[in-house]
Write a structure and sequence with these properties.
four-stranded antiparallel sheet, 1 helix, 47% strand, mainly beta, 131 residues
Length: 131
């Protein structure tokens, strides 16, 4: 059974950095597309970033481009989200998601941004940015 486990959240001051991890287990991920999403209280879930496990192709939401970096470590079956220059509006629960057996280059941008595209989800980790 596929499991995704996030870690690395916490409280940080504006301008600071955090690195989130998503450890994947219970499946084969070499052909997966992995995504990070976030949801603030009272708001809809928003796409943050996506990565192709196969070839490392990347895609970011405009709101985080230039500040956040998504990466993966194939040997550890782990996807990371490095978050720099954090802002109070980045405060949210961050969740990782997986869509197995997918070709990143064949997916439309709107599919990558949609939570419905992904089959597996982690429990999420809280990120709080104080002003």
């Amino acid at each position: 059974q596929v499991q995704l486990a996030e870690s690395g959240g916490g409280l940080v001051q504006a301008g600071g950095s955090l690195r989130l991890s998503c450890a994947a287990s219970g499946g084969t991920f070499s052909r997966s597309v992995m995504g990070w999403f976030r949801q603030a209280p009272g708001k809809e879930r928003d796409f943050v970033a996506a990565i192709s496990w196969r070839d490392g192709n990347l895609y970011y939401a405009d709101s985080v481009k230039g500040r956040f970096t998504i990466s993966r470590d194939n040997a550890k079956n782990t996807v990371y989200l490095q978050m720099n220059s954090l802002k109070p509006e980045d405060t949210a629960v961050y969740s990782c998601a997986a869509r197995p057996d997918s070709l990143f280059s064949a997916m439309r941008a709107r599919d990558l941004r949609s939570g419905d595209t992904y089959d597996y989800w982690g429990q999420g980790t809280q990120v709080t940015v104080s002003s």
